[in-house]
Amino acid sequence: MATYALVHGSWHGAWCWERLAPLLEQAGHDVIAMDLPIDDPTATCDTFADVVCATLDGCGGDVVLVGHSYGGMMLPLIAARRPVRRLVYVCAYAPEVGRSLNDQLRDDPESFNPAANKGYRRDAHGRSVWFDYALAREMMYADCDERTADSAINRLRPHSTFPNTLVCSLTEFPSVPCTAVICTDDRLIRRMFAKRIAERLGADVVELPGSHSPFYSRPRELADVLLGIADQ
Q: Which numeric CATH code is attached to 3-230?
């Protein structure tokens, strides 16, 4: 029996795993999901990693860490703090030693779909807040039914942009096997950028059809990928 630790991405919370988690639990595994303090303008990726590690306190080393989108920025930070079996990047970024996420995005303009920038604004605390719900659906839930997309969009949270400015605190990546799940119609994180990240990580690559949020649009397919990892 494995423990799946599910780390959400920008604007989301533990709620986004609500369709995936039961499928993993039905297969006999434990699932832990947490709300990261992404709306705290002083929090950093190391803060987020500490929150995940605190949530996993008492768990053994048979932990599969799953990070969606921005959640991938925390995975190696967590693996440097505690034993884990595998890191799974789902439509996700990954940190780069000696660089910030802003550095990555600036140097690779094909990485993030610039159209998304028109859908959110900065608030007084330097947090990005979605206001164009139609664009949010297009970018993150394009292959979800309307009810699912609306439910998710209505729960989106402000996300501080402060961590994006900070250089990754790692001096080297922990030696942990990785899998990258890449969705073929991801409209937020460009597919070729996701493949370059996977290559940099030395990750096994699994491609799924669909857009940026397979935990909603294709939970069964994503669960099968994760359960296959537990069986290895």
A: 3.40.50.1820
